[in-house]
Amino acid sequence: MKFIVSIVTALSIWEGINVANGFTTKFVTHRNPTSDSRLFAVKIDGYDEAFEIINECSTSGTPSEELFDAVRFIDRNSLKIYPDEEHKQALWDEAHGSWKLQMATGGGKFKQFKKVPIFAFAMVDDLNFGNGVGWNEDNIILSLLGPHVFSTRKRQMVITIDDLFLFAANCSYLVPGFIRDGMGLGKGPQDFKGRPPAFVFIGASDKALIARGGTGGIAIWTRLSKDIRPAAYGSK
Fold first, then answer.
1. pTM higher than 0.70, yes or no?
2. SS3 for 75?
3. Alpha carbon of 69 to those of 75, 125, 151, 210: distances in Å?
4. Alpha carbon distance 188, 191 (integer Å)
5. Are residues 137 and 174 in contact, defined by beta-carbon separation less than 8 angstroms?
6. Is the dihedral of CA 8, 9, 10, 15 positive or negative?
7. Rg of the chain over all Cα atoms, to the nearest angstrom
8. Measured between alpha carbons, how far is 10 from 26 in angstroms, rounded to an integer?
9. Phi, psi (5° rounding) for residue 64?
């Protein structure tokens, strides 16, 4: 059990690995049929240049000197890039999929991205947000899963935790009460005294996903070619 606690603690450290909740019996990733992913961003002057930097760093896993300014450009111009709910919904659709966490700032006051030294993933489908750590995308050690609540207006995904998995086996029933309380296991958004854990999406492409966590830190993921869910939560 000390092993579980240590990994859960490590998960909570990374802004990009915040937490989620709820296991479902179906793996579904359907994008909104009324949303066109090609319309998820209004490409203002400087957009393509900024995302070229972001995509390159996301793919390589190595932050460049220009990366923070590129992300800040997208963030500061979000009202122009996502001017209405249609564009915000399309951004949300683009965020669906399996992602590898590549780098994070670690907090709102930091202006430099640092490489994440472990394999950490995030997953968004129609019902759930999931994340965890492992050796690689085929060998996941610990993962969390749960239903998300997305606010289109805020571009915000609220997350909670319902289930904990070890090596793709649901071990939620083994978690002691004091650890469940510390993790917020089983809590809904309304059960938190303060703000529940959440991400605000800054941008997305076919290669990269950018989001800000609750403490202001920014994380960047790269899209995985494989669906992470069977390795993290078992075959369905």
1. yes
2. helix
3. 10, 30, 26, 13
4. 5
5. no
6. positive
7. 17
8. 28
9. -105, 170
- Which pair of structure tokens corresponds to residue 44? 């203002």
Q: Which amino acid is at 205?
A: S
CA 125 to chain centre: 11
Q: How many residues does the chain have?
A: 236
Per-residue pLDDT of the chain (236 residues; tens, 9 = 90+): 333 433 443 343 333 434 333 333 344 443 443 334 345 799 999 999 999 999 999 999 999 999 999 999 999 999 999 999 999 999 999 999 999 999 999 877 888 999 999 999 999 999 999 999 999 999 999 999 999 999 999 999 998 889 999 999 999 989 888 888 878 787 777 777 778 889 999 999 999 999 999 889 999 999 999 999 999 999 65
Is the Cβ–Cβ distance between 55 and 207 less than 8 Å? yes
Structure tokens at 124: 């968004």
